[in-house]
Write a structure and sequence with these properties.
With about 550 residues, this protein is α/β, with parallel strands linked by helices. It has three domains: about 1-170, NAD(P)-binding Rossmann-like Domain (Rossmann fold, 3-Layer(aba) Sandwich), CATH 3.40.50.720; about 175-320, N-(1-d-carboxylethyl)-l-norvaline Dehydrogenase, domain 2 (Orthogonal Bundle), CATH 1.10.1040; about 320-560, NAD(P)-binding Rossmann-like Domain (Rossmann fold, 3-Layer(aba) Sandwich), CATH 3.40.50. Helices cover about 45% and strands about 15% of the residues. It has 24 helices and 19 strands. The strands form five sheets. Strands 1, 2, 3, 4, 5, 6, 7, 8, 9 and 10 form a ten-stranded mixed beta sheet that branches. Strands 11-12-17 form a three-stranded parallel beta sheet, with helices on both faces. α13 packs across α14 and α21 (about 500-510) packs antiparallel against α22 (about 520-530).
C-alpha cells in the first residue's frame, strides 16, 4: 500500500517507520531539514525501545502522488494548511487525522469531504529533536473511528493495515475518545514549564497535585457540556473518574504510578516540551486552551487551564520572542485597549520600551518609530503604541505611553547576574565589548513606578509618550566598579574586541531570520559596545518626573542599607 505521512515529526516518523517495516511504500512529508537528512543518510534512523535500525523510506517536502492512505500527523494549528497544500494529491484518498485535542476533524472537514476523514486517538510515545532521527519510547496503540459517520468496511481495512505495525482498535465514539485523551493530556504542558520529563513531573508532590486538579477541572467542564467520554486502551473512563474522585494526594500518587509504568531509559518529554526545544509553536490552544474555551461557553470557570495557556505563551516569549508570540502580544494588547475603552477607563498607560526607536539621530523624538526589525519584542510594542495613539486621536481614548530603559534594583535579575558571575565563572572575567567606556542608560524600578503614577494622573500625559531613564548614564567600567563595592565581589572586566563579535553576530542574525524566533544579535552588539543614551527631559517638564536615583551609582548604593 502507498502510504503518505503528512507531518513527519515524532509521531509521523514513528508510524512511518513501523509501517515501512511491514512492507508498505511509505513517503514522509516533512520539513526540509528532516527530508534532506533522510535523503543524505539513505533512510530514517530509529532508536529507542525497539532497538536501533535504519528504515529506507522516501521523503519529500510536499505530496506529488495519490496515496492509498494518508496520515495527517501535523499539529492541530497546522492541519488546515497541510491539507490545503497537498489537496490535489488527496482527492478521494482516505485521510486519517492523528492530532491531539478535539478540533482537527472539524477543521479538515472545511476542506475535504467528510466521508474521506477517519480520526485516530494516538497513544504512541516518541521523541523527535534531530533531523533524520526519531526515538521510539513506546509503540503504544491507536484508536480509530469515523468522526462524521459510523464504522464501515474502509475503517476495518485501515484498522487491519495499521494493526500490523501498531496495536489498533476501532471506536464508535471517537469524539468521546478524543476528549478522554485530552483530559489525560492536560498535564502535557507541565514538562515544558519545568523542563522535566513526564515521570519527574508526576513524582513531584506539588506538580502531581496540579496535574490532578487540571484533570478535575477538565472533567467538570466536559460534564457540564454533556460530552460522553469513551474508554481507551488501558485507560478506561472509570479510572480517570477515580483519579478525580480520590483525595488529591492519593490521586497524585496514582498518577505517578501510571507514569512509572510508561517510563523507559529514554526520557519521555511530552509534545509541548519537544515543540519548545525545537523552537516550534506549541498546540497549547488545542489542549488546555480547549478546556478554557469550552468552560467559557458553558459558563463554568477553568482558571488552572487558562493560566497554563498563559504560562506556555510566556515561556515561548522567554525562550525566544517568536513571530506567533509577537502576533499574540499585539492582538492581546488591542483586545485589552478595546475592553478598557468599552468600560470607559479614565486612563490607559501602556508600558513600552525605548527600543521602539533605534535611530541614534532621532532617539529622543517621541513621535518617531524605528524598531529593529529582528527584535520582535520592540516590533510588537511599536505596533501597540501606534494602535493606542490612533484610538486616542480618532476616538478620544485616554492613552499614554511610558518607555523605560533597562530597569534595575539592588536585587534585580539584571544586577544579580553580574554579582553572581564570579561564582559561576571563577577563572573568567565579566565580558565587556570594547573598552567599556561606552555609556548606557538605566532606570531604577522606584523611578519607573513614579513615572507610571504620574502618567496615570496627569492630564497632560494623554496622547503622549515619555522616556523614563536616570538623569545620568553610566559606563560599563563604572557599573562593574560600583557593583564590586556595593556587593563586595571582585569583578574583573574581560574586554573583547568588537569587530570579530560583530561579524559572528551578523552571521547568527542572518541564519536566524528564517526561523520562528529571529535573534537581534547585531542590535545586542551595538547596545553593549556603543553609547545607548536617552533624555528624560520631556517627562520632567510635563509630568514633574524627578528621579530619586540620578544614576545606578546612587540606586545601587541605596540598597546597601
Amino acid at each position: 500500500m502507498k502510504i503518505a505521512i503528512i507531518g513527519a515529526g515524532a509521531i509521523g516518523s514513528t508510524l512511518g517507520a513501523l509501517l515501512a517495516r511491514q512492507g508498505h511504500e511509505v513517503t514522509l512529508i516533512g520539513r526540509p531539514a528532516h527530508v534532506e537528512a533522510i535523503h543524505r543518510q539513505g533512510g530514517l534512523q530509529v532508536d529507542g525501545c525497539l532497538g536501533e535500525f535504519m528504515v529506507p523510506v522516501k521523503s519529500a517536502t510536499s505530496l506529488d502522488f495519490r496515496p492509498d492512505l494518508a496520515l495527517l500527523t501535523v499539529k492541530t494549528q497546522d492541519a488546515v494548511a497541510a491539507v490545503r497544500d497537498n489537496l490535489p494529491s488527496l482527492a478521494n484518498a482516505p485521510l486519517l487525522t492523528l492530532q491531539n485535542g478535539v478540533r482537527s476533524d472539524e477543521l479538515v472537514a472545511e476542506i475535504l469531504p467528510r466521508n474521506q476523514i477517519i480520526s485516530a486517538v494516538v497513544f504512541v510515545g516518541a521523541t523527535y529533536l534531530t533531523p533524520g532521527m526519531v526515538t521510539i519510547l513506546q509503540p503504544g496503540a491507536l484508536v480509530i473511528g469515523r468522526p462524521f459517520g459510523s464504522r464501515d468496511s474502509q475503517v476495518d481495512v485501515i484498522t487491519r493495515v495499521l494493526s500490523r505495525a501498531v496495536l489498533t482498535r476501532t471506536s464508535n465514539n471517537i469524539r468521546g475518545a478524543h476528549w478522554l485523551k485530552l483530559i489525560i493530556n492536560l498535564n502535557n504542558a507541565l514538562p515544558a514549564l519545568t523542563d522535566c520529563t513526564v515521570s519527574q513531573v508526576s513524582a513531584d508532590p506539588y506538580l502531581g497535585r496540579l496535574a490532578v486538579n487540571l484533570m478535575r477541572e477538565g472533567l467538570r467542564v466536559v460534564d457540564r457540556a454533556n460530552i460522553r467520554l469513551a474508554s481507551l486502551s488501558r485507560m478506561p473512563v472509570s479510572l480517570i473518574r477515580l483519579i478525580a474522585w480520590l483525595p488529591t494526594g492519593l490521586a497524585a500518587r496514582l498518577l505517578a504510578s501510571m507514569a512509572r509504568r510508561i517510563e523507559t531509559r529514554w526520557p519521555y518529554l511530552g509534545s509541548t516540551l519537544q515543540s519548545v526545544r525545537r523552537g516550534r509553536p506549541t498546540e497549547i490552544d488545542y489542549l488546555n486552551g480547549e478546556v478554557a474555551r469550552l468552560g467559557e461557553q458553558m459558563s463554568i470557570s477553568a482558571p488552572l487551564n487558562t493560566r497554563i495557556v498563559d504560562l506556555v505563551y510566556h515561556l515561548a516569549e522567554e525562550d525566544g520572542f517568536s513571530r506567533k508570540t509577537c502576533r499574540v502580544n499585539l492582538e492581546a494588547t488591542k483586545t485589552l485597549m478595546d475592553a478598557s475603552q468599552s468600560i470607559q477607563v479614565k486612563r490607559f498607560v501602556y508600558v513600552s520600551t525605548v527600543a521602539v526607536n533605534t535611530n541614534r539621530q532621532r532617539r529622543n523624538d517621541p513621535t518617531y518609530y524605528e524598531p529593529y526589525p529582528w527584535y520582535l519584542h520592540s516590533v510588537a510594542k511599536c505596533e501597540g503604541e501606534k494602535y493606542g495613539f490612533e484610538k486616542c486621536r480618532r476616538e478620544g481614548f485616554p492613552f499614554s505611553v511610558v518607555r523605560p530603559a533597562a530597569v534595575y534594583a539592588t536585587h534585580s535579575p539584571l544586577i544579580g547576574d553580574i554579582v553572581n558571575w564570579p561564582k559561576k565563572h571563577k577563572r573568567l572575567g565579566y565580558p565587556i565589548l570594547g573598552n567599556g567606556d561606552n555609556l548606557m542608560h538605566f532606570g531604577h524600578v522606584d523611578d519607573v513606578a513614579q513615572a507610571l503614577i504620574l502618567t496615570g494622573i496627569k492630564k497632560e500625559a494623554i496622547g503622549n509618550a515619555y522616556t523614563i531613564v536616570d538623569d545620568t548614564p553610566i559606563s560599563w567600567n563604572i557599573l562593574l566598579e560600583t557593583i564590586s563595592q556595593v556587593f563586595g565581589v571582585r569583578l574583573n572586566g574581560w574586554h573583547i574586541p568588537v569587530r570579530p563579535v560583530r561579524i559572528v553576530a551578523s552571521v547568527i542574525e542572518w541564519l536566524s531570520r528564517a526561523t520562528s524566533s529571529p535573534i537581534p544579535a547585531r542590535l545586542l552588539v551595538d547596545v553593549f559596545s556603543s553609547d545607548f543614551v536617552f533624555s528624560n527631559h520631556k517627562a520632567k517638564e510635563e509630568l514633574g518626573f524627578a528621579p530619586q536615583y540620578p544614576s545606578p551609582f546612587d540606586g545601587l548604593r541605596s540598597g546597601e542599607n
